[in-house]
Amino acid sequence: MDAVTIAPAANTANTVNAATPAIPTAPATPTAPATADSPGDIVTSEPSSFHPLPGQPTNTKAWKIHYRSTTAKGEPNTVSGTVIVPQDGRKGPRPLITYAVGTVGVGDHCAPSAGFPKGTTVEGNLIQQLTLRGWAVAVTDYEGLGTPGDHTYTVGRAEGQAVLDAARAAIRLPEAGLGEDTPVGIMGYSQGGQASSWAAELQGSYAPELDVKGTATGGVPGDLLRVAKFNDGLYGSGLIFMAAIGQNAAFPELKLDSYLNPKGKKLIGALRNSCVADGSVLGAFKTIASMTTKNPLEQPDWKQRLTESQVGTARPDAPVYQYHALADELIPYAVGKKVRQDWCARGANVEWHTVPVGDHVSGVMTQSPFAAQWLAERFAGKAARGNC
Q1: Mean pLDDT (whole number) for 274-293
Q2: Is beta strand 320-325 parallel, antiparallel or unpaired with respect to 183-189?
Q3: N or C: where does the chain have the smaller number of CB atoms within 10 Å of the terminal CB?
Q4: Rounded distance, CA 321 to CA 155, Å?
Q5: CATH no. for residue 151?
């Protein structure tokens, strides 16, 4: 499981369009189509706004959407998200990035769509780097984050499908001005690295009509059992307990509560209403053994479900730009490298980059401009040169 707060990047983007008035958030009067029967169909949409920082104007329009997607068990569900489109006068098709955020927490108020109008969504500056290129961006909230039920945090299939269906929904949103021929890029880091990687693996079978040109993914928690063992009792241990909530949300038969002692039940209850900053503090340096009557991760059903979220078991059809910080203190470098090895063994076109200096958070801050430029080259039709 990934992640930690991704701090705002050094803002090369903030100096552009500073004089452009912000698009105000309109009264919540959602509109809905007659039917929403297929994955990616719009259930409701309403005007919103996109601010990378509080009060910061951007030359964009945004809409909060609810759209059809699919659970990890293959059942229809509804996911919320945001579609952001630059207002730059561009004519004709523009690229679309379906963007998967890193861990924001489990509480509904932590959803990216809740933070964009207030300028409090942590990766807002990274997303603005994309809109300043003239690209539209669809940002999923993921299943259960801003919609009923617990967030299915770290459940790879649910995340990947939500990412792909966000792209479908953006293309089907009339106000966005996109079309069936819209070139699509997939992008994400940390939890978003898991989600974007799953989207890359699923796209050919789940959303083959999308014209995906490439995926930029980093800090990928490809092996959840290995990441959990690494973080148990350390700074990132709160993420283990958030992931337990997420897996149990997708698979209630895992019966998380039956493993918890009183301290564990109190912690899980608090985490269900926490964002990543306070949740990480609440869970930090706690061991699984101290919160449970027996370790669920040692049980066959839990092991099976966590293994089902492993990244690297299928070949992405489109090229991949993958990166990982050598000194990542939350997701071991070897875990990301194993994803690269597995993809390469399956014949994927992977351009791998080691981030030699920095930790988990600085990995995305330093690499996101390079990842975006790599996607720009794919949109321009340039051949990707993997280094497997």
Answers
A1: 94
A2: unpaired
A3: C
A4: 22
A5: 3.40.50.1820
Q: Encoding tokens for residue 251?
A: 């698979």
pLDDT score for 33? 52
The span from the CA of 51 to the CA of 118, in Å, is 7
Exposed/middle/buried for residue 166 (C-beta within 10 Å: 0-12, 13-18, 19+): buried
pLDDT of residue 358: 87
* Domain-ending residue, one of 307, 328, 350: 307
Q: Give me the phi and psi of 219, to 5 degrees please.
A: 55, 40
* Number of domains, the chain: 2
Token representation of residue 248: 């149990």
> Confidence class of residue 91 from pLDDT cuts 50, 70 and 90?
confident
Please list the alpha-helical segments (H only) found in the chain. 112-115, 124-131, 156-172, 191-206, 224-231, 237-250, 262-271, 276-283, 288-291, 300-308, 333-345, 360-379
Residue 248's CATH number: 1.10.260.130
Contacts 24+ apart (CB under 8 A), 10-16: 10/365, 11/52, 11/53, 11/125, 11/128, 12/129, 12/369, 13/52, 13/125, 13/128, 13/129, 13/132, 14/52, 14/53, 14/56, 14/125, 14/128, 16/132
Domain around 98: 42-222+315-379
C-alpha closest to that of 187 among 62, 84, 323: 323
Torsion 269-71-141-35 (CA) sign: negative
Q: Are residues 328 and 303 in the same domain?
A: no
